[in-house]
Design brief:
Blueprint lengths: L2 H19 L5 H20 L3 H6 L10
Helix pairs in contact: 1-2
Length: 65
């Protein structure tokens, strides 16, 4: 997972958390938003996205040989 991808995921996670705690996202949608924020944070921290692996997607820059 590339650094831009990780940064974007962390920013989206932070936004979802802020929206939840400000009360702008509530109920089931709020719970889903927190779940997505948790997944985005976890995948950013460990630099691995299972969906990327399944579909063969990479956002890492490759070194030239």
């Amino acid at each position: 997972m590339g650094s831009i991808d990780k940064t974007v995921r962390l920013l989206i996670a932070a936004l979802l958390i802020v929206l939840y705690f400000l009360g702008l996202v509530e109920g089931v949608l709020g719970t889903v938003a927190l779940g997505i924020a948790a997944v985005f944070t976890l995948t950013s921290v460990i630099s691995f996205c299972p969906l990327y692996a399944v579909f063969g997607i990479t956002t890492c820059k490759t070194k030239s040989a």
